[in-house]
Amino acid sequence: MLKVFLRVLRVLRSTSYFFTSSLAERTVSWFRGFVVFVVLVMSVAVTVAQSAGAGDVTVSASVDRTAMFVGDRATYTIELTCRRGVEILPDDLSGDKLTLEGLELVAAENSRQSGRDGATIYQFRYIVTTYRMDAPKLTIGPTAVRYATTRPGQRLEEAAPAGEVQVPLASIALRSALPDEADVLDIRRDRPATPRPAVFAMLQPVGIGLVIVSMVPALVAGAAVVRRRRAHLERSPRRSARTLRHEERASLDAVRAMDFSSIDGRRDALTALDSLVRAHLRDVCGIPGPSLTPGEVASALSSHGTRVPVELVTAVLTTCERARYAPPHASPSADVCREAIGQVEQVIAP
Fold first, then answer.
1. Please, which residues bridge with residue 80 across strands?
2. CA-based nearest residue to 35, from 65, 8, 57, 61
3. Helical H runs in the chain?
4. Distance between CA atoms of 286 and 331, rounded to whole angstroms?
């Protein structure tokens, strides 16, 4: 205020208010001094208002890396601290309003939290990347953020704008993050490897012994399985071909003697034929017949090269499957059962 007063005195003296004798000249000089005084007071008020509003919002921007290469990602963070009663317009910092040169926006997020003395802290994070090798530079341009002063209970949309702050420009170098000089990396050295401590050298035999001990239960279990398998084979010796043919003939005669007049009788007969054919494939042809479908049986017989008629085996097994699982109205007839018995007789024939 002292400076303002001195300036007013100098202006009044320059207008010759105290040194003129004419009334008209003194009136003009007085009016001129008054205008100058009003202008000075207004300039001081504006300066005070601007200095008071300069601390309403503080802004800082940073990038988590100074250099990036094609495909790398960088995080650009803007942090704004607003004093009590000041709010910013978050739309000014939306992702589509960023000025990106040589960069592409991957994701954006923001958060708001309370600070000391009623302040509000806004954080905006942007993940950017580049896929261009010909980009002259990678920059994020400055952004203007508007803010307003709100009263308690007043919405931000109803408050008058109080000013704006500038988010500074940020730049990232387009190059590898590794140093340019390969010698400074010092990844491999000429010196030999560091010797192990004596304690670890002493414990090496103990570790090898523990590994061997852990293998003993597995070896014992494997030996027990082999021994059990051999004992089972010794208890059930392989039957001769003559014995097999005799048993198959007896089974076929038993099926031929069944009653085919009812659906259940035909189902039982065809089930017995299915077991007979599959057992013949297992014992004579060496094919796991009981665990294969008719289609798989045909493929196994073709690759095995046996003299068993593949078409007859497939037809019999298909008929048996239909008798076992089809509804009653689709069950095979008595003539089909007799035909299946004839086909099985051809299959088991020597």
1. 59, 122
2. 8
3. 2-14, 23-53, 198-235, 241-256, 263-283, 294-304, 310-325, 334-347
4. 31
Contact partners, residue 244, CB within 8 Å, separation at least 6: 280, 283, 284
Domain coordinates of the chain in residue numbers? 1-38, 57-174, 241-347
Instruction: Provide the sign of the torsion angle of the four alpha carbons 307, 308, 312, 318, taken in this order.
Output: negative
CA distances from 25 to 7, 20, 42 (A): 21, 7, 26
- The one-letter amino acid code at 343 reads Q
Burial 87-114 (b: 16+ CB within 10 A, else e): bbeeeebebeebebebbeeeebeeeeee
User: Is 57-174 a domain of CATH 2.60.40?
Assistant: yes
Is there a contact between 90 and 57 (Cβ–Cβ < 8 Å)?
no
Residue with tokens 């007063």: 5
The answer to whether residues 65 and 177 touch, using CB atoms and an 8 Å cutoff, is yes
If DSSP states are collapsed to H, E and C, what string results for 289-339? Answer: HHHCCHHHHHHHHHHHCCCCCHHHHHHHHHHHHHHHHCCHHHCCCHHHHHH
Q: 266: helix, coil or strand?
A: helix
Give the sheet arrangement for strand 67-68, strand by strand.
67-68, 170-174, 138-140, 100-101
Amino acid at 159: A
Q: Which two tokens stand for residue 337?
A: 């059962």
DSSP 57-84: EEEEEEES-SEE-TT-EEEEEEEEEE-T
To the question of pTM greater than 0.70 for the whole model, the response is: no
Q: Which two tokens stand for residue 270?
A: 């065809």
Convert the pLDDT of each residue in 234-266 to its tens digit.
555 556 777 878 888 888 888 888 888 888 888
Helix (H, G, I), strand (E, B) or coil at 92: helix
| pLDDT at 53 exceeding the cut of 70 | no
